[in-house]
Design goal:
mainly alpha; Serine Threonine Protein Phosphatase 5, Tetratricopeptide repeat; 74% helix
Amino acid sequence: MLGLYAQQPPAAEPERILEQALALHQSGDTEGAIRAYREYLEQRPDSIQARSNLGTVLVRAGRYDEAIVEYNRALAGGAKNPLIVMNLALAYFKSDRIAEAAARLEEAMRMLDQPNRQVTLLLADCYLRLGRNADALALLTPLEKDNLEDPAFNYLLGTALIGNGQSARGGQVVDRILRRGDSAEARFLLGTIRSQAGELEKAMEEFKKAIELNPRLPEAHTRLGEALLSNGDSAGAAAAFHQELEFNPGDFTANLRLGVFAKRDQDYDEARRYLDRALQARPGDPGVRYQIATLDLSTGKLEQARESLEALVKESPGFTEAHGSLATVYYRLHRTADAERERGIVEKLSSVEGTTASRNLRR
């Protein structure tokens, strides 16, 4: 019995391991700190602070998915710490899971006693990436008076204004940025304004200037690709979208467009990869779900396509293309009555829209 007892670690051993982990953390030895925190947590799995610290060093190492697991474990242990929630949001943001980042930032804002500028700006950025321009604008507008000379703030505000259709006010914000000198951000916003006005050539020039000034500016290649696509240059657009994904792999629009291109070229595995990324960027997006459903249709997964399309038309009864594709699915499943019903809906919607979509239906 004495021999067995002597093999037990001394009572202070876990605390010494934690001290070592903290020392390695503070010295910048990321991998060493990760190993030490994990060793400590094997003996003290309920330590919320150690789990949070482990999440921090995992983020520093670029291991975002592992960090997310640790932060969630810390919160599951009963932590009501807004700092942990904010760090979790940042890990989601850095791993391009923008919708989840936004949800956690909203949670953090509810937990804080007073507004936090960093959280507000990051949440506004998330809203912009999710296409929620009005929500971003609601966050940023009250802060405008105190941030007139802040170029980062002005860039977010200008993006929100222009995306919300307020190009005139957005132009005023661009002028504030330009007073500090030429910048990629100002050129990007000017390109967006030109694009919205239908001035595609001028828009492309502005986006190209933005890329020259900062080749890694988020969405700059995507906006250039969209302008090229609108101008009939599909090959140039595809190249721009690929360039965006080289350093911004979670970009929603680039993934969606490349998924559609790959589906058109019958490269179905590649199409699914891009479309899944787009859906991860904006969970529940009806446009992406429609593309995935038609991909299932193209690859013979008729029941999956049927379920997805039925859900879409239930949520969005005016979604003409979804009704049309659902009619095609029903025809192939030999559900003729259902197919004719959907075809009738398409004809009715098309007559209202002044289109001829129903003519393209095939059994």
